Amino acid sequence: MSSEANNTAVGASVRSAALPRRFEYASAGAIGVPVADKIPRGAWLGLAAVFVGMVAAYHVELVNLVTQWATDEGWSHGFVVPVLAGVFAWWRRDLLLKLRPKGTVLGLVLVLMGVVGHVLFRAGGVVHMSYLSMMVVLYGVVLWALGWDYLKILWMPISYLVFAMVPPSTLYVKATTPLQTVAAELSVRMMPLFGGEAFRMGTTIKVHHGGGWAMLNVEDACSGMRMLVAFFALAVALAYTTSRPMWQKVTLAAAALPIAILCNALRVTLTGVIGTSYGMQYTKGTPHALLGLAMLIPALGLQLGVAWVLDKMFVEVPSAAGVRR
Prior knowledge:
The chain has helices spanning about 5-20, 25-30, 40-55, 60-70, 80-90, 95, 105-125, 125-145, 150-160, 170-190, 225-240, 245-255, 255-280, 285-295, 295-315, and strands spanning about 195-200, 205-210, 210-215. The chain is mostly helical. It has a three-stranded antiparallel β-sheet. The radius of gyration is 27 Å and the shape is globular.
């Protein structure tokens, strides 16, 4: 080999060694080697096979979920949740493509635990618990096929799927009962703001407005539980996609609880005002559903207001090396 060729090879080696680590993947892509090819083809085929197997194993639960989303307006947000989960994963794709798969046997253990739990839950008729076993299987598949580095990023998109899962009836009843009482009490206190008068009797509101009296019952659907789940899903999505410190993200997500309670009380209040002013037929059916959707506007405004307050009250000052304090 000539001295010129040797010099060229040595120079290329020096330049390659001098490159920062973050340029290694860009160099690979530049010569026609896609970064995603670092994941073996067998791993992709294995993931596809596992996905098909999960659809076959959980087809009953998946059909029940889709049916619930399609027939119950309170859970119609379930169609959006998987899409957002996919968006979260796609949003971190640059970081995911830089990782190298390092699967671990612990993931297989999680998969087996999830499958066994699914079989036992289905045999015992506890269908709602099978939803949680589905998430355990997803965690295990990622850990088994790809490793911890991938799971550290994908745990959030997988966990986000819980917002699309209908809770068990016993848990739902225990959660909605106090929310019904809170919604009725707040509505009674808010009614004078709209020129009305009301009294609470348990979860029933006696409304006096426009010269008449009407009984408005705060049912399970008006408890705010479904609105709370939808608002939490929205708040978590907003917090996850913003570049804020973790404590601010947690604050934004936690703010969904009082915001959902307040907006639900406003919905019950407006329902009473509309019913006594224009007729009780407007307190149910399509008008009632549209009023619930309209509450997303003030909820989003309040959520953005919390973010604005955090921006004004706390300013993150980046520390720079060499800057005198």
